[in-house]
# Entry
Amino acid sequence: MTEGRYYLNNIEEAPGPPKVSKRRSRRKVTKARQKAAEPISAPEDRTSRKREILVNAGYDETRVALVEDGAVVEYYTEKPSNQKIAGSIYLGKVTNVLPGMQAAFIDIGEEKNAFLYVDDALLPPNLEDADGELPHGHSKRRKVISELVKQGQEVMVQVVKEAIGTKGARVTRHVTLPGRYCVLMPTVSYVGVSRRIVDEEERQRLRKIAKAMKPKDMGVIVRTVAEHKTEEELQKDIEFLTRLWDKIQSQAASPGLKAPCLIHRDMGLVFRIVRDELNQDTTRLLVDDVIVYGKILDLLDAVSPEMKHKIVYYRDKEIPLFDLYGVDAAIVRALQRQVWLKSGGYIVIDKTEALTVIDVNTGRFVGSKNLSDTVFRINMEACAEIARQLRLRDIGGIIIVDFIDMETQEQRAAVVQELEKALRHDHTKTVVVGITGLGLLEMTRKKVRQSIDAALLRTCPYCGGKGTVMSEETAASKVLREIRKTLYNSQSEAVLVEVNPAVAAHISGSSGGLAALEKETGKTAFIVSSGDLHLEEINIKALGTREEMAEKARRSAL
# Structure
């Protein structure tokens, strides 16, 4: 099996949905969505969650949406020009060691140097996802970064967190190679089983298999999807990962290889989703590109043939797959501050450099005559939407939720419990700390990649990302102060000033103050407008006689 590449085989024989009539109106999208599933899926199990993966393969972008019970809960996008580097392995060079920060900066050939924290040079990442003792060979004695790496040293590192904002990628020296059923940790001797596997007998069975099969001095974590898998299936996965590690080591030791350089790139978006998200809980995976469809089938031929029946080729070009499921509309809403609840209440999500704040409001919801009951119902409803928005927007770091004030401790405890319940479907690690004395709920969510707004939006060039600009009145006052200073510091009798049209209109109005300024200085200011100027921008174009400035103003107005 070739790493990261799978080729088309016998696609003509693969099942797919019948073509939809071209005459179907777009106004019937909702009805079409209900009908489209019927010929291509098994009868729905009404007692369980319906979990679908949608893959849209475009010319310049690949998009993936995870839909649970009809609601979009996760969204991924990848462009050929901007591929994700998390999971990729580099031969890097240490550019700076900072003992005071217990960290080092590593040049891996990307735009920003990567960040290596001392703990990422000592312990493998993500051990919280498994259980067991501290990996063999690693002491609990606190190390210092200067004992581990030196400036100019070449080191093999793996990216564990994408570059976000002004911060470079975070890297580790302890490589983890995820497979379908297992994660291989070549640098530590360790065995763990995913905590999401709760059956103790099954945990012990998988642990025994992993201990027997893991290569010497290496570690293995058994993933959730390995539950009830055979010994042969796990062995095949571990052997593939071991061969992959041998290949990576050989590549790193190649004569003439010079840091910084890429040694191994993780799978592309679609294959990562198939590897990490396609499981027994998945109802089906729909893909709208025949080539990608075939490659997915090839991948599953090699790693999980029993999952092939869940893959569906969506052929209808009249109604795009993402339109059918309302994905694009959900993404538009996910980029807005305000999210409405079904009851008429709403939540407001605001991000800062340090944390994310979520505010819960009653909105149009009036509820019962009992205010306490109304508040409690809105807070309980908000929990599910907050959990969904955290996943959909991929918000990480510190999160503060300002629920509507509740009267009793029992109500507060019930809301915390409801939020924790709603977060159980989130594979990203979340910790609900609790409600503070001020009634604010504190929680954290692990930050792995860019949030959806960072990935899809750019900072507004007009306001600089603040969301506000000066009012016309404030900008006009600023212009008048600048004109006053210019006239008092010049021997010229007139000045020509260019400003934004809205500011020019305010200055030239009866209450704009321009006439009073001219009377005070005994000089003249000619104001011309330009739609090319920012509201807050001032352009002192020229100084001279009144006649000269009047002529220039006339020409500017043409």
User: Anything to note?
Assistant: The chain has four domains: 11-81+269-328, 89-264, 335-456, 472-557. Residues 335-456 form one domain.
